[in-house]
Amino acid sequence: MDLLITIFEFIRHLDVHLETLMREYELATYLILAAIVFCETGLVITPFLPGDSLLFAAGAITAKTGILDIWLLMLVLMAAAFLGDNVNYGLGRVLGTKVLERDFWFIRKAHVLRTQQFFARHGGKAVVLARFVPILRTFAPFVAGIGAMRYGRFIRFSVLASILWVPSFSLAGYYFGQLPIFKDNFHWIVLAIIAISLVPIAIEWFRSRTAKRVAHASTPVASSAVRNPENTE
């Protein structure tokens, strides 16, 4: 519980932490931010790392301090996201279907199954769409590696996802993050980005729960029809 509170407080004051980071480490911040993006997209054990909010905050603080170049920052982070995807795909290939048999300390079977359902619903577009959804963007390359997608096809979607994801949030932060309404309510903006990003997961969860209830409710009717065929017309 303490860890969750710490993570929440860190994300809530992400702009303050990032500005301190940039002023202290200057150009090394490129590598630090790239490492965070790489871990979130490339390692199934770190789905809790900030993604969308980090990109937005990085763009905003870059505009404020002028320490980093926004275009170079985006290139570095796009490369990090792409490399992370490839590492995660490789992990899926290596571990294979073992993760579907039981939970591991570093990965929950439920997350993998939910991502598989996302793939089944959206096909190849899932790699691009999942990049904008926390948790799913960490598990989508892993599930693709298990067998949901050929590597050549995955690469194309991964490149497109990186090109769309990084600039959309970074430039939004760069151009809007210093406006008074955003600057004065930055922590609420960060939390709003996280909340909006979680909407697709909530929708998928609601659909899954609804489907299970419908299936459960129809089972007794079907059984009754079998036991009493004379009641059917």
The share of residues in extended strands comes to under 5%
Q: What does the radius of gyration come to?
A: 21 Å
Task: Give the ordered list of helices and strands.
Answer: HHHHHHHHHHHH
Straight-line distance between termini? 58 Å
Low-confidence stretches: 221-233
Mean pLDDT: 80
Percent of residues in helices comes to over 70%
What is the structural class? mainly alpha
How would a crystallographer describe the biggest sheet? none
| Rough outline | globular
Oligomerization = single chain
- Would you count the extended β strands for me? 0
Number of DSSP helical runs: 12
What is this entry, summarized?
The chain is an all-alpha fold. It contains 12 helices and no strands. The chain is globular and about 55 Å long.
Describe the overall structure:
The protein has 233 residues and is an all-alpha fold. The chain is built from twelve helices and no strands. The chain is globular and about 55 Å long.
Please outline the helices and strands.
Elements: H1 2-12, H2 14-25, H3 29-42, H4 52-65, H5 70-95, H6 109-122, H7 126-130, H8 136-148, H9 151-176, H10 180-183, H11 186-197, H12 199-227
Helix pairs in contact: 2-4, 3-5, 4-9, 4-11, 5-8, 5-9, 6-8
